[in-house]
Structure formats: structure tokens, C-alpha cells
UniProtKB/TrEMBL annotation, chains A, B:
It comes from Meridianimarinicoccus marinus. Pfam families: FCD, GntR. This is GntR family transcriptional regulator. Keywords: DNA-binding, Transcription, Transcription regulation. The keyword Oxidoreductase does not apply. PROSITE patterns: HTH_GNTR. Residues 9-76 form the HTH gntR-type domain. Gene3D superfamilies: GntR ligand-binding domain-like (1.20.120.530), Winged helix-like DNA-binding domain superfamily/Winged helix DNA-binding domain (1.10.10.10).
Length: 225, 225
DNA sequence: GCGTTCATTTGCGTATGCATTAAATTACAC
DNA sequence: GTGTAATTTAATGCATACGCAAATGAACGC
């Protein structure tokens, strides 16, 4: 479905979408270099839109433009992960607090509730991929409910950067039972319009997740993703 | 002075720097439209580097590329200000907390102390421009001490977006005496390695500033900057 | 006078070509 | 064989050209 407000999709837009996909799918692995001309041919367009797309993705921290070496897909180190989780913790906690201040009805919270239900169901089936997808949806929706467009943009950017890492850690971590309980707590706090509790619970949730992931990376000596 | 590590300054880099300057100086006012060809001629280069620079500045929230209408300098509304201050509050408070955890010596805190001293001196002389410059330095240095590169990048971006607003509000607000006291408190908490206090004090500082600015904008019916 | 259609102009999006310069390769001296 | 200088190669950074769609304005009917 294509709304009338959509602006026509330019090649540059396609390049952005497609390059992101290639990075997340691992077809362009972290740390690898790629000539502009190579990417241009691969996506069936000239270097111009590729360069513009790369500029955008560069300022989003996904890759780097290096003279004469093409674009380098940026690896994510454990230190990067710590930075990113710290940012996510702060901004999502703010979003949770603000969401709880809005006095949302349960109807407003439908998507959030559905994400939680989907996570529960996926967890029962031990279907971690589906769980991860629903977890993403929960966090995205939580931030949306917070009502700050900049927080949305930043958290989306940060989540992009750790997406590759999750593919690795998801199957090394214990079953995310605690996570699901955390989410329900945050949901309740928002539904009951208790901003302080929503913030505190979500912060604790994120800090636990951060420590768990960083612990995993360290124990498995994963220096970059 | 040009270190050997500096990569050669490309026209695109020049365009980024120069366009930012033009926006902050008000030569390209908020809300105005500018043809790419016009900007290209103005900066003495072709449209190509202008477009690449614009892409970068677009993802930093300073302007917008619109088909056939050229580059639009994005205005900042009071709602935008609220969003930006919320983000700054969260991330700078985190930086203050982290800075206090590092066990910095007073030598490490020299720049921070100097910024405070400069603000005091400027305040005595009622030299608001110098005060604002030192205030900037304080916040930048505080975030640097926090040690999170992403927080640095994001807060720098957000500060850019409100820079124009300050030119307006700086001379409408009461003398920032409270601000200077706040800064000293944050400094002390970092020097005494008291993370929780550093965080709380800085948060209170930012929230006061936000409410003051938003109040000013509302009282003066300033709908966009 | 007002709306509608058609012609014209304009500016972006993109492809293409080329100069520059860093990197790679070879030639060569020792 | 190793280190250095000369030569070649190659990829970016940028200027330029052009098609196309949107905006503008003209022509025309009512």
C-alpha cells in the first residue's frame, strides 16, 4: 500500500534501503571494504546515488567513506555496544516516563500489548527469531508512545547498529524470561500512568540487558561484530 | 596548524562547514529555501559537493532536501525545543554520572573549571555572548569527560539545532546566576566522585533551563526560530 | 472574470567523463 | 635480496550534461 503522501522513491532512497539490508543480512560483513563502482553495479545504478546514500548512512554510523578504499562497513566493538546501550537506556527510559504521562487508554496501548503477547507466545515455542522481532516492536512502540521524534530517530539509529550483534548473542543468552516480565511491568506502569515507575522499571530492564550482553561478549572473547 | 593526520579538505567538507556557518549566522534564515545551483555558485563549486553536504546536514536535522524546491533551512519550533532539551537533559546527565565515576583528578578537570571561571567573569561584566560561549564549552567538556563518543555526537547535533534559538532568548532571560551555581555543583560532584549527585544536579540544571526557555518562547509568542 | 488545458520553463535526479592523487607495481642500484 | 625511485594503475572527487517531472504561465473557452 502506497499512500499519496509518499514521495516518489528515488534511486538514492533505494540505495539507502538496499545497503542497509545488505549490511544487516551480513552480505556486506562488518569491517569489509567495497568500491563505490562495485556497489553501483550491484544495485544497478550509477555511483552518484550510491555516494549520496553512503553519506547518509555514514552520518548514521553504519559505514565510513574512505578515499580510494571505498566504503567500509563499520564493525561494532564491545565498547561500542556499551556506548549504544547506555544511550538506549537513557532515551528509552525517558520515553517510558513520558508515555506514562500521556494518560493513554488501553486502546492506545494495543500495539504494545500485542508485542508483549507475541513475545510470550514466541518464548513458549522457543522461537527466538520471532521473539526478537516482537521485542524490537515493543521497544519501537514504547519510544513512539513517548512522543519525541528525535528520541525515535536516535534510538532507531542505535538499534540498527546493534542489530548484527543480536544475531550472534541471541542464541548464546539464556531464555529471555526476565525480559518478558520486565516488559509487562513497564506496560502496567504506563497503563496506570505511573511515570516514575515506568522509567525506573525500564531503566533496570535495559541495564540488565546491557550487562548480560556485555558479559556474553566478554566470556566468548568477541572483540568485534 | 594542520596535522599530518588531517585528511585533505574536500569541497564537500568545505560545503558542510560553510553551510553550517551560513545557517548559524542567519544568512540562510530558518524556513528559507535555496536552490542548489544558487548555493553552488555562492560557495564557488558545482552542485555535486553541495548535494553531498546537504545530505549530511539533512541527517543532522539542520535542513531538508525537497525536490524542485531546493534546500529548506529547518525552523525550530517550541515543540522542537522541548524535544531537544529532553534529549540533552538525559544524555548530559548520563555524561555527568559517568564522568564522576572516572575518578578524574583536578588536572583532568582543568578545562571544566576554566569554563566555569570564564562564565563567572563574563557574568560579572554582563557579557552575555562570552558567557554563552563559555557555557557551551562547559557542556561540551562535561560530555567529553563522560567518555561516550555517541553521546558527544548526539549532543553536539542537538546543540547545533538550538544555537539559533539562543541568539534570541539569551537577551530576554534573567541573568544566568542560577546557572553558574548549578555548574559549580556539578563540578564539585564530579571532583568528589559522586555520580548520583552529579547526575541529579545536572538533570535539575537542564530541566530548569528547559522550563525557562520554553516559558520565554511562550510568553513572547515565538512560534519558530 | 474565472476556470481549464496546453505549452514552456525550470530545477532536480542521475549518468558520465575526467583530473587528481594515493596506492601498487616495476625497475634498478647496491 | 633489500631498499628506493620511477612508472603505472586505479578509484575517488568533482564538473558537466541531460531527461523528466513539476511548476509556471499563456491561451482559450465559457
Amino acid at each position: 500500500m502506497k499512500s499519496q503522501l509518499d514521495k516518489p522513491v528515488s534511486n538514492t532512497d533505494r540505495a539507502i534501503t538496499e545497503l542497509r539490508r545488505l549490511v544487516f543480512s551480513g552480505e556486506l560483513p562488518a569491517g569489509s571494504d567495497h568500491l563505490e563502482s562495485e556497489l553501483a553495479e550491484r544495485l544497478g545504478m550509477s555511483r552518484t546515488p550510491i555516494r549520496e546514500a553512503a553519506r547518509t548512512l555514514e552520518s548514521q554510523g553504519l559505514l565510513e567513506l574512505r578515499a580510494r578504499k571505498g566504503v567500509r562497513i563499520l564493525p561494532v566493538s564491545p565498547e561500542d555496544m556499551r556506548e549504544i546501550y547506555d544511550v538506549l537506556t537513557e532515551l528509552e527510559s525517558l520515553a517510558a516516563e513520558r508515555a506514562a504521562e500521556q494518560g493513554y487508554s488501553t486502546t492506545d496501548l494495543t500495539d504494545l500489548a500485542r508485542a508483549i503477547a507475541d513475545m510470550d507466545a514466541a518464548l513458549d515455542r522457543k522461537d527466538l527469531d520471532t521473539w526478537a522481532e516482537a521485542d524490537d516492536r515493543f521497544h519501537t512502540e514504547l519510544v513512539r508512545l513517548g512522543g519525541n521524534a528525535r528520541v525515535m530517530a536516535i534510538t532507531a539509529m542505535m538499534s540498527d547498529q546493534v542489530r548484527r550483534a543480536r544475531a550472534v548473542t541471541l542464541f548464546m543468552r539464556p531464555l529471555p524470561v526476565q525480559s518478558n516480565e520486565d516488559h509487562r511491568g513497564v506496560y502496567e506502569a504506563i497503563a496506570k500512568a505511573d511515570p516514575q515507575r515506568a522509567r525506573d522499571l525500564h531503566r533496570a530492564h535495559r541495564e540488565r540487558a546491557r550487562d548480560m550482553i556485555l558479559g556474553l561478549l566478554e566470556r566468548h572473547r568477541l572483540r568485534q561484530l
